[in-house]
Amino acid sequence: RIHSIFCRMANNERSFIMIKPDGVHRGLVGKIIQRFEERGYKLVALKQMTASKAHLEEHYIDLKDKPFFPSLINYMVSGPVVAMVWQGLDIVKQGRAMLGATNPLASAPGSIRGDYSIQTGRNICHGSDSVDSANREIAHWFKADEINDYNSPFINSWVYE
Ligand code: GDP
Ligand code: MG
Predict the structure, then answer these.
(1) What residues pack around ion ligand 2 (CB closer than 5 A)?
(2) Which of 10, 40, 43, 118 could disulfide-pair with 159, CB 3.0 to 4.6 Å?
(3) What is the pTM of this model?
(4) Which Enzyme Commission number(s) are on file for it (predicted)?
(5) Catalytic residue ranges
């Protein structure tokens, strides 16, 4: 029983996953969501929005001194994104693996970027790189009442031991 309670807490890790404007324009929203659903992760928040420049500059604040920062922001404001929170065991690390490397040349085939993208500046998706970044990004993109903390007995019993 203690074991199962402990595991359930570990299974509540959350990551901020976002489909960038190129992913939306190219009609990849459903395919990307499907990968996380089929893997066994739980969708707890989702919205489409056209983010402001200021909102994106804050999201990518750690990259503000990079030479590609202005073009990154222009790319990200160019259209709507789909912002999501996915939950489950090791979702932050697993989400990064499912996305693939930042540069699609290094993204393994089978990953989202490895299957659908060619250049770093059009790499389709975002995923938090640590649990701390995930917490910061989730709070930046979602209000607390936009996150749905629901119990899923099927996932509890059949995705986890
Ligand atoms: P990520 O966590 O894998 O998304 O990579 P980073 O946090 O390092 O960078 C954020 C985003 O900035 C990437 O996903 C790319 O869209 C973009 N980016 C990163 N490095 C470069 C680069 O060298 N050139 C261009 N054009 N964009 C970049
Ligand atoms: Mg990053």
Answers:
(1) 129
(2) 40
(3) 0.96
(4) 2.7.4.6
(5) 126
Q: Is 68 in the pocket of ligand 1 (CB under 6 A)?
A: yes
For residue 79, give both structure tokens.
């259209």
Q: Could you report the predicted ipTM of this complex, rounded to two decimals?
A: 0.98
Q: What separation in angstroms does the CA of 149 have from each of 60, 87, 99, 110, 144?
A: 27, 10, 24, 30, 10
**pLDDT tens figures, 61-111:** 999 999 999 999 999 999 999 999 999 999 999 999 999 999 999 999 999
Output the six-digit token pair for 63: 């990259």
Closest Cα partner for 98 from 86, 27, 147, 73?
86
Length of the chain measured in residues? 161
CA distances from 28 to 12, 90, 107, 112, 117 (A): 26, 24, 17, 10, 11
